[in-house]
């Protein structure tokens, strides 16, 4: 089963399970605040914000709360997740597109034609093949004007043995058993554990951002039990050779 299909099969239970995760939505809002502090609209219609890997719209809701004047474009590769996001109530100007981040540069969707004023991506890179992550970031960068802010929000535990232990205990003691009880897709949450254990270090992500053409990269960790497990990265699109 493709990863996007696994997310689709679990979509209806996803919001419930994340709602049981202490701090999950708080940290999404915190990351969205980081983006809102840096966004400057280039037009009269409010800033356009891309929410890449938007899933069921939890990250989109965090952005809507922090940027009430923004036009939001949620992009995701899972049809089931996106259908749930579209079914929720949104302010005017919020749209959703079924697309892979890898295809953004050549996407035929009209909604993706306008350059964003800010880009948010929660848990995106972890679900991209390791060898393609820098290329995906570079694709995103090429759709952004110089100085446009980017915020990534994702898990990484490879730099801390304590974080690895905590993550493993939470996954096998709580998340995976809960997925069985809720008749979700247990293999998806086993994948979740494994993908986080193997995800890039924070240093690697910062290097990928530089290699992809972003500047001023920095990272901070979450609070509570997510400390040293969940991280938020901020950077801005640098000038390409033709824009310098």
Features:
Rossmann fold; 244 residues; globular; seven-stranded mixed sheet
Give a quick rundown of the structure:
The chain has 244 residues and is α/β, with parallel strands linked by helices. The protein has helices spanning 3-19, 24-36, 58-66, 79-87, 133-142, 161-181, 186-197, 202-211, and strands spanning 48-52, 71-76, 95-98, 118-122, 149-155, 214-221, 230-237.
Please give the alpha-carbon distance between the first and last residues: 45 Å
Name the structural class.
Answer: alpha/beta
Estimated share of beta-strand residues: 15-25%
How many structural domains are formed by the residues? Answer: 1
Number of helices: 8
Which range best describes the helical content: under 10%, 10-25%, 25-40%, 40-55%, 55-70% or over 70%? 40-55%
Q: Uncertain regions: pLDDT < 50 for 5+ in a row? A: none
Mean pLDDT: 89
Task: Say which CATH homologous superfamily is assigned.
Answer: Vaccinia Virus protein VP39
| Order of strands, widest sheet | 3-2-1-4-5-7-6
Pfam families: Ubie_methyltran
Protein name: Class I SAM-dependent methyltransferase
EC number: 2.1.1.-
Enzyme class: transferase
Describe the structure in your own words:
The protein is α/β, with parallel strands linked by helices and 244 residues long. It has one domain: Rossmann fold (3-Layer(aba) Sandwich). Helices cover 41% and strands 18% of the residues. The chain contains 8 helices and 7 strands. A 7-stranded mixed sheet has the order 3-2-1-4-5-7-6, sandwiched between helices. Helix 1 packs across helix 4, helix 2 packs across helix 3 and helix 6 packs antiparallel against helix 7. The longest helix is centred in the last third of the chain and has 21 residues. It is globular, with a radius of gyration of 17 Å.
């Amino acid at each position: 089963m493709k990863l996007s299909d696994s997310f689709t099969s679990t979509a209806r239970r996803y919001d419930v399970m994340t709602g049981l995760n202490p701090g999950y939505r708080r940290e999404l809002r915190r990351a969205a605040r980081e983006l809102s502090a840096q966004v400057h609209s280039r037009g009269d219609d409010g800033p356009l914000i891309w929410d890449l890997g938007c899933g069921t719209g939890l990250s989109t809701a965090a952005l809507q709360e922090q940027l009430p004047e923004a036009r939001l474009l949620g992009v995701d590769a899972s049809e089931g997740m996106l259908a749930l996001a579209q079914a929720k109530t949104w302010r005017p100007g919020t749209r959703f597109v079924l697309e892979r981040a890898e295809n953004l540069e050549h996407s035929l969707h009209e909604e993706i034609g306008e350059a964003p004023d800010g880009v948010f991506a929660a848990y995106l890179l972890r679900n991209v093949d390791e060898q393609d992550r820098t290329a995906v970031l570079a694709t995103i960068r090429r759709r952004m004007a110089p100085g446009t802010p980017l915020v990534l929000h994702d898990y990484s535990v490879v730099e801390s043995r304590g974080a690895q232990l905590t993550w493993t205990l939470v996954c096998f003691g709580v998340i995976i058993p809960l997925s069985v009880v809720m008749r979700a897709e247990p293999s998806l949450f086993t994948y979740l554990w494994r993908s986080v254990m193997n995800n890039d270090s924070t240093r690697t992500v910062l290097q990928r951002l530089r290699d992809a053409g972003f500047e001023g990269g920095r990272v901070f960790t979450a609070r509570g039990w997510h400390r040293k497990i969940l991280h938020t990265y901020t950077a801005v699109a640098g000038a390409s050779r033709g824009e310098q």
